[in-house]
User: Fold these one by one.
Assistant:
Number 1:
Amino acid sequence: MAARRTVVLGKGTLAIRIADWFRKSCDFELEHVVPVVPEPTWTESLAGWASARAVPVVESGHWRDLPGVSYELGVSVFYDRILPAKFIARFDRLLNLHNGPLPRYRGVSPINWALKNGEPAHGVTIHEITEGIDSGPIVAQLEYSIYPELDEVADVYARALEYGWVLFTQTMPILDRIQARAQDEAQATYYSARDNEPLDERSSFTRELSLRK
């Protein structure tokens, strides 16, 4: 079987680890990476990683500039643009790794909101990308403990990157055998960037940084 043409979209350490997994796999061919642009300065550069390894980079960071007509697989890891139907249709399968226990905590800042709401647990989810925001069928999910009285957003974010990596590496070998399940809309919650003001002390990676604003 020919290697599957694959694209990784996103930013940071986990996107790099996942892109590198595809680059080294015999079953996949990493065709392009599409970084978030501008890339955040607080994490590693996906574009820099790709350039150093001769992996083609979509320099604009925009999905519409991805060359080619179709791909077997795409994986979004914290990519910050909503992907339209015409882009989704270019992939046999397009997946997203989301830092929340879907259908709860759709949208932005899921870790910040989980801590703000005093949740005892959080999660990471791999789901199929549809035209809705984080509403596609769930492929795989992992839940882990968080401690709002102790944890900073940075603590949970670091934990989420590790659990996200575990979920990805355990899911990929059996991806073709997994029957994705529809999300329960009755359990869904959603936060947009417009909702972030009430986060207060949870608006930044640490409460100390939030108080400095």
Number 2:
Amino acid sequence: MRILIDGIPTAESDATISVFDWTVIRGFGVFEVVRSYGGATFRLGAHLDRLERSATALGIVPPGRDRLAGWVSDIAAAMGDGQVRVIVTGGGRDPEVAAASRTIVMGEPLPAVPERLSVLPTVAPWHPATDTSGFPGVKWVSYAPNILATDRARAAGYSEALLVTPEGIVLEGPTFTVAWVADGRVETPSLDLGILASITREVMRECAVMVGVEVTEGRYSLDRVLAADEVFALSTVKQVRPIDRIGDDEIGTGPITRSLAGSFAEVVRSETGHMPPQTP
């Protein structure tokens, strides 16, 4: 694994931060995961834009954009295919203990992802859609509730969770955006629900224009998704990945998901020079 801490190459055994850093104590920090295809980053600028928005929301000052982009690109080039994780820690907040904010950039192998996903609907009272926290779409390291939802879904025999409000409005997955096909068009939850402004979701919208499919956003019930013709997940790692089971309901994989996945792969190829694997 290749690791930079504040731009300095660091061995795995030496890759540490202060125990007084609030990323350790409070989960106070921000992060991004950038996909590398053959050593070329995909949509790095969009990821850095989102990292800056998240850092601003928490009052964290990240390194200069050019330096950070260089670090990510260097790790990607050395790694080839994989993902580059960027973490900007919150630093220490105790005036008696100095702990500077640190920036960690590391290359990771891609996690295994099933060709078809099954998801367990899970009520998520911690989600920004359920309160007025003022932090919608912030990609901070405090993912404990989301990861626990994933763990519980997997313990029940599913590959992922699907987060919904107590009223049954569909939000997103713990680490992905969800969309589906109904009445010949793609529907997806709107950003005003506090879901993450997914970069893959935005690429999907571009692909939909390319293949002539309408995309609408809104507040949709779980029943609406269960009645859909096709359902799919969107994320940096998953790309466009079919969902074939939601709870006890089987969902088919159809032509629009396949078309969007193919167009997504072409966008990646045109921007990175490398064709990603396709699964639908």
Number 3:
Amino acid sequence: MTASPLKNSLAFLNLSGSAAFGLMRASLQDKLVYRFDLVVGLIRTFILIFIFRYLWIALYAGRQSYAGVTLDQTITYAAISLILSPLFPNSLIVEVGRRIRNGNILFDITRPIYFGNLLLFQMSGQFIATLLTTALPMLALTFLAVKLVLPGSPLVWLAFLVSLIMGFITAFLIDYIASLAGFWTTEIGGIFYAKWSVVDILGGKFLPLWIFPTALQQIALVLPFRGINYTPLAILIGEINLSQIPTELGMQLLWLLILAGLGRLIYSLAVKKLSVQGG
């Protein structure tokens, strides 16, 4: 009798593992179907990289560095930010809103898996697909066409990869929390655009935080958005040095725990307010 709870727990873990793998594989296959979109995305990103390269050359106006960061470092930051941008979830709010409106959300929340984990597994499949089909090929092409300042230290690369994964989860959790607003209101388009703008600006997607005015920079540095783009990229180009990396990764982890707890709390309140239209 005492072995029964343990057996049930192991069975649940196996079920969750199988479900996670199945959801990730389905998302990966779905991403690979749209090959034309992948090609168009590569061309678009390549054009943007060159536009931002010449923009930063013009802004530096012959100076060797600004705020202690060289032109080559800034160009590397901007180029890799554009390359990695498609990896991060950005359409979850729209997708969850659609599920709520057509009633399919009922099937999601009654599954034997936490709704947030369900979405995370789906987004992870898209992350892997985009990494393999878009980010890595684009990085190789950019390396051949543009001078990039990349680290030679394996420790820096390891810290960058860890930070990038936490940045992905941070982006997911922010999207997930914002998407839960759909349980209270059926129209969340405004929330989508507001979230998009705030995350892109304060996360350092297009403009690195070191060029912000001091007051805005200090605000951005204590918010979770910096962990999406700025922290991994600043580690990669050396703006965040080895001695600072543990603190930066610790900050990312702290925000992950806060956002994960907040997501579960809001979800527990949201399912009580569920109002499905249509379907």
Number 4:
Amino acid sequence: MNKVDLMIFDLDGTLVDSAPDLISAVNYTRAVLGLPAMNDNEIMSFVGDGTDKLVERLLGQELQRCREEAMEIFVSYYDAHLLDNTSLYPDVRDILEFYRLKKKIIITNKRYHFTRKITDGFEITGCFDDIIGVGSTPFRKPDARILLPLLERFGIDPAFAVIFGDGVNDINLAGNSGIKSCAMLNGFTPRNILLSLKPDFACEYLRELKTMFC
């Protein structure tokens, strides 16, 4: 098995299935603006780079003039509904308990406020040594500057840090930071895209980590 001293988790598509509430928020925003609904797969292809990029993408190039209004609509709606249909992926609680003695953090491109509402809602905030989201740092994945200060603070050798995520930004953050990556193939990003990035490890379900890392 592979030794790990720091476990870094993405949020959306890795720890939580937030797709239903993100889809609802996007289509609500479009409806208020008088735009037709988008299909689920198209919406989920917008996810991973933060709220600002999500709103930019849901508008399309021709409607960027509505960006500020769309942002207000989206943020207000999502803030009120982000736990309506979002769920923890199976085995999350079990994995967090199994690795309770390991340093664990969340790094996400989701706004920190939204992230904390979700982790607080599922009562898993206390399982992590830190939670990093947009607004809590000037950087975002895959910029190494979001992670390197944490490695230094915890005294972690990058060789023994692993990020678990379903996004392109997770794999690229690992490459930029000198840590290992484990692609979660059952999340939001098509598996062929993740595997093309040549992550160090890959798995379908979180429960597989028990036999991969110690």
